[in-house]
Amino acid sequence: MNPLSILLLGFAMSTDAFAAAIGKGAAMTRPRFGQALRAGLIFGVIEAITPVLGWLLGRSASRYIEAWDHWIAFGLLLLLGLHMIWNGLKPDSDEPVDEARKHGVVALAITGLSTSIDALAVGVGLAFVDIPIAVVAVVIGLCTFSMVTLGIMLGRVLGAMVGKRAEVVGGIILIGVGAAILYGHLRA
Prior knowledge:
By secondary structure, this protein is an all-alpha fold. Helix content is about 80%, strand content about 0%. The chain has one domain. The protein is elongated and about 55 Å long.
């Protein structure tokens, strides 16, 4: 993977966290920059750890499926991309939410973990291609930190309108990265 692909992957992995951050920022009363930084740090650290865990899981199985690794990476990224697009296009739930518990550290960590499941799966897929997982994890973490911090601050201004579109764009980017991996292996 070239540096641009890694950067695009980082931003693609951060779009669901960005969408969640916009929602959190919209629900908070006048979020302060410190609150946004805290949320960005929590999301970024979790989002950086999960692809490494996925990569370790994938590496342990790689010797069994080397001949199909590029197809597996493509398939996982395609499915994740389609899932993100679907989440971005489906209507929001109207269920009532307890506002007091919604913005604490535990709630942020749970939200961060739920938005990083895709990064875990991407880590599994990346275990089958020769890439520096530490660099990818750091890029994903920094992109997520930046996007969540920005999302919290923009939340009151932009509301839920942009959040869903960001997830659709992230899904399209994931599918593109998967197609690039598949093309690179089939061309070689």
